[in-house]
Amino acid sequence: MTRKPFAALSLAPAIALLAMLAIVSVGGAIWLALMNRTLRSPDAEFVGAYNFLRLLRDRRFFNALEISVIWELFTVAGTILLAVTLAILIFETVKKPIWRNLLCFAFLVPVLLPRVAAAFIWRFLYSPSLGVINYLLGLVGIGPVEFLADPSLALVSVAVVDIWQWGLFFTVILLKLLETLPRDPIEAAMLDNARTWEIHAYVTLPMLKGPIISLVLVKAVESLRSFDLIFVMTGGGPGTATETLDLYAYQMGINMGGRISYASAMSILLLVVTTIAFTIIWKAGRRWAN
Amino acid sequence: MANISCTDIVKAYGAHPVIDGLNLEIPDHQFVVFLGPSGCGKSTMLRMIAGLEDVTGGTIEISDEDVTTLPPGERDVAMVFQSYALYPHMSVADNITFGLRRQSVARDEIDRRLNHVAGLLGLEPFLDRKPKNLSGGQQQRVAMARAMIKTPKVFLFDEPLSNLDAKLREKLRTEIRKIHLSLKTTTIFVTHDQLEAMTIADSIVLMQSGRIEQIGTPDEIFERPASRFVADFIGTPAMNFLQAKISVDPEGLLATAGEIALRLSPEMFPSLKDGSDVELGLRPSRMDLCEPDATNALTGHVVLVENMGSEGQIITEMDGQEISFVTKEFRRLQPGQTVHFAIHPEHIHVFDPKTGKSLRSPDETL
Amino acid sequence: MGKLIGHAAMRIIPAVLVVVALGPIFWTVLGAFKELRDIVTPIPKLVFEPTIDNFVTILRNPTIRDGLLNSVVVVSATVLIGALLGIPAAHALARYARRWGDDIQFFVLSLRFMPPVAIAIPFIVIYLDLGIYDTLFGLVLVYLTTSVSTIIWLAVPAFESVPRDIEEAAAMEGCPPWEVFWRFSLPIAAPSLFGALVFTFVLVWNELLLALTLAAQNATLPVVAASITSLGKEVPWGVINAATVLLVLPPLVFIGLLMGLLNSMVRSGPK
User: Fold this and answer.
1) What is the ipTM of this complex?
2) Most buried of A83, A155, B305, B359 (most Cβ within 10 A)?
């Protein structure tokens, strides 16, 4: 067997499977979105763009869209800022390899937790009656704070958990990247009498521009998968204060009434919006990185 | 044992040919070096002979058998890579014997041959180690042992010494040469190091941008460079070049470049006419100090004296040009001094300034 | 004096950071060994009489036991099939595919952009119609999107870092392409590939949404754990904590491996 048949044979099954799953799910979603299928009965009629037109008049849909955007921006920015800050802080203050490795191990733990587990851990901490956080706040005379039941706090409180998981993980990556940077430019900057923050602002961070953009992209994709965390922590509540698009689609399609076609229309819109958004971000990121 | 012949070889990446119609004959038992600057196509040629690179056009024959489309494993050639390409997950012994074990050669035959090559290359103490626990030179030897144990028709070496330090390089160069003397396997050795090529080769194939500039023994390449490119590429310190004009007078040929005037041998350059423009090539190592009135004496001011141990390179300035020569008596020279040095007419190279080709008559013998 | 504070800060900062990272988990682990009366206290208790009642409760619970078993079956099948399909594909992409390689890789990566709901909803209907709704087989099939694409995504760089020379040297000894792959590329890339498999394992083990929508009855462990909240009136915090610990343990076993994967990825240059 020569090279070409071997390559084709190795590649074909995987790509065929992926293509099939992708076509079936996207094609299926489009097909369903044009019908009025529900979970209760298998009968359905073709209704054209009806579901999409309904969406445009659905206040709850626009609320979910808004919350999704806020969630996306807040968690991505929070994660990257936390990671950059902590990575530089550790890079400058913790010099012993043992301590650094220990920190890296500790920082890797949260991201490995299943979202469900992280959600329970923090619900326990956030609890107004028996949570540690409210106990500590009580010591300084604040509280009790209803972190997850207060509509103005709930989204932020859930986002903190997301940032706790991913910000610490990205800190480890950035720290490793800082360690692999060539020492010469940093030492040259030191000879020029640059202060520590100047070295990082003008030398190391610009050198890490490419990787940081990649991290932003990875996190942006990851933040779309917020369902597990929000579902367990608040279920989209209180009211619809933390209901992102995927939660709303789930509630519509599966939980309440099983309006599968309507939910499909929503997920199609979600798919289109994310595809466009990521293509733009991807291209812009590429250009900016070069 | 085998001869190799490459006929009308073309190699193109997309529409862009990097080698375009190359012909080459390598006789049996020869140690041939492909020499040239990086990107000249020497490695590509080697990899096409190995079968690692597809040939776009032309044929390659080994022992008069067309191997152009054979996979590398069926050509009965062995290769030593620049990076050694040892199998990191196998011990040294397994690395060396892998090819034989694959062909299900008898166990005791494998052991016998392993002991033989390991002894030849001094690898006995390392047979159980993993490649990463060996020094660069030892890894190099393992790579050679792996090639030798198969007793192939042809050995191919792709810059095998360029990752080693200078001293080790010299040592292994000698070893490779000795092994070839005893095995006499046809060998192609790729390098960009002209000194390495000169010391190791029976025959050098000097390449530039996908073409063969000259094929010849090291002596021929050094003494009778076919072009300015070859002359410039070979020899340290590098050759001096001067634009000059030829005049024919009763005493023979005279080349003048400003105040510099040099006698040429009319037998060597019968084609030169009065008034033709030429480029002269003067090897620093072929010039030495002389009396002011000697034939072909040049007079210059010393700019720099470079100590090379047993001799020194003197860089002089004359008539706005820098010309260097080599002498053993460099220690008494100082910058600023005036020196006289000369070159024998028979050692002057003359090139066509347009084509770069040597103007020396092909009939005249060394 | 300033220096003294600086030195103190250097000691304190890592300690604080470790507490931030691990404190919440530590607290949950403590909670898993507490009786409910030790949890429901106005002042959090650090010292208490440990009990394993919570673990006994969850391990006796048939729903949780089934969930655990389902998780193990689904995750191993997904990772195993994903590896069988994804690893050879990644090798082909890393070595042979010149013209289409980038496009295929982008397609594989773009699957990771797909919102999970967009996959879940059509598959509910398709599975209902095919009669494989609520089966482990159906769940594995959908999870293969994740595992195959993730394994390809991580394994391509692993194969790219295998020196080409070594594969060529093997080819010169007469190995056909499949043998070069099996006896050389695969063992040499094995450490990074193992990391990729572990990463995929963690992703699939942790997944909730698809399991919740496609196999609500044959639930995996995250689905079961997520449903404990609504047991009776009183929130059974001890049991929840114990279930959380159970859920968390398998991914954490591999933390050292992931660290190694991370190190090698950073060293080989960020993508």
Assistant:
1) 0.83
2) A83
